[in-house]
Amino acid sequence: MSPHLVYRVRPAAPQAHLFHVEIEIPGSGADLVELSLPAWIPGSYMIRDFARNILKLVAESTDAMPLKCRKRDKQTWVCRTGGSAIRVRYQVYAWDLSVRGAHLDTTHAYFNGAALLMRVHGMDGRPCSVDLIPPDGDVDAEWAVATSLAPEQIDGRGFGSYRAENYDDLIDHPVEMGCFEQVGFDLAGVPHRLAITGRQYADKPRLESDLLRICGEHAALFGELPIDRYLFLVTAVGEGYGGLEHRFSTSLLCSRNDLPHPTDAKRTDAYVRFLGLCSHEYFHLWHVKRIRPSALMDGRLDRELHTRTLWAFEGITSYYDELALVRSGCIDPRAYLGLLAATMTRLVRTPGRRVQTLAESSFDAWTKFYKQDENAPNAIVSYYVKGALVALALDLTIRAGTQCRTALDDVMRALWSRYGCTGVGVPERGIEAIASEVSGLDLDAFFATALDGTTELDLEPLLSTVGVGMRLRPSDGPKDQGGCPESFDHREARPTLDLRLRPGASEAIVQNVIRDGPGERAGIAPGDVVVAVDGLRATAENLESLVARAVAPVRVHLFRRDELIEVLAVPAPARPDTCDLMLLDAVPPQVLEARTRWLASVAGDRRDCAP
């Protein structure tokens, strides 16, 4: 046996959704070998217990003699080896069509190493090879492989042997096997590929052109591209959305309607959202995968690792993912302000922002953000959403305080130089320290309020420094997320019960009841099905309008469990929880210059994209 670890992966039973995995483990002289599967995957902070999908684990010596194995805990097996080399075989059930797990059927095979490839304790640092083997029979006739793993000896379809530096590297390259379309482009001499799985009719040239510009903005910001290859693994489905970052690739799940169609006259909102997702995960190439929080660097994947810095790693990334769209010219400034306004609206519509601090949101991501229940809007705040707005506030604060000589861009470059290039982890308050050092400003009060307090972010005066007007107004309805109007016209506050309904349902099923709202005061609860308002049939589509037109108090009939209940509710005027932003025309030259510099391409050679 080789002195390094050898993994073999075969989608052996697509109809049963079973991968077969074999590991060749060299002898170490120890009588026992421990193996385990991670409980979570880097980048997604929730215990997922991937080992629950392992079936039929057996071990044998190199001469095929069975060896005794016992399960020590939920994810760890111990095998008696006598100090010799062994083989371990097991099956993994794969039916998780997400960017985090593994999925196998007769159309494709997809896996993350964390969900499939067991860690051999004490050998984490050894080089690994992984053999990707096609399925038996006719299923594989057209199948190929897409992965960012470094090839060692592969055939024309990509099946064969790949190498990894160690276990961490091994599980950081998702793998797709199946029939997919490929497109690509080169950026600074580095090949970038997109492998798109699923039925779709995407405008491939537009995808290539737009992603080249966006990726170029991020590379210009950091000043270098620390990779020799990059892969976007895209799975297009009917409904879905998500992404997960890796050092040389990203996995993306999207609706096929998110992709650009050749007949689209301009970029649709859905396509802009997809570009934002690509931008977000590509930014992580630097910020998360190489600039890393020290708290997450010990390699432990068997339990939670807590940090208060997720606001910076996900929030700053969320700020830059949309900023890169306007800087690259893929959207115009008004469209960007519309996206920014929607982010502000999401925050203002979260009463939990007054309950949970941003640092607490980061720390409790494992048990609160990733395990949201019906009370989540009242109890927590998203470190993505509020983190992005804190990044915006930090950027504008630095720009205003230094007369635009310094910006958050400079902070990111300093983080890259000090931490990303050296492999040293960012300490818990490292982002704040670098921001103060680079800007020369005293930012203690800013961070105390933004990270450790629950008072409102005062964004309006900061936005005015770049010639952007802001207002909060009542919502026009559940689909109104705010935007960037030509002018701030008056909006009447319609009466409402402050209920949020379950998305996608035709019935008016209550998902959330907003704290201290009229619905809560009336005793309406999550899970209730509202069937009538003042004797008129209620649906998800018309509930808001029925309430708005009724005369208080309103008789609301609803089912709770299987019991019909009548409650009296007194609707209240809708809160000013919807944000509009507007480009101001009559601004001083220095303000116009500040806005131009804020939204300008970092790459320096931007040409506005076609619509």
Automatic annotation (TrEMBL):
Domain of life of the organism encoding this protein: Bacteria
Protein name: Peptidase M61 domain protein
PDZ domain location: 491-562
SMART domains in alphabetical order: PDZ (SM00228)
One Pfam family from the record: PDZ_6
InterPro entries: PDZ (IPR001478), PDZ_6 (IPR041489), PDZ_sf (IPR036034), Peptidase_M4/M1_CTD_sf (IPR027268), Peptidase_M61 (IPR024191), Peptidase_M61_catalytic (IPR007963), Peptidase_M61_N (IPR040756)
Lineage: Bacteria, Pseudomonadati, Pseudomonadota, Gammaproteobacteria, Chromatiales
Organism per entry: Thiocapsa marina 5811
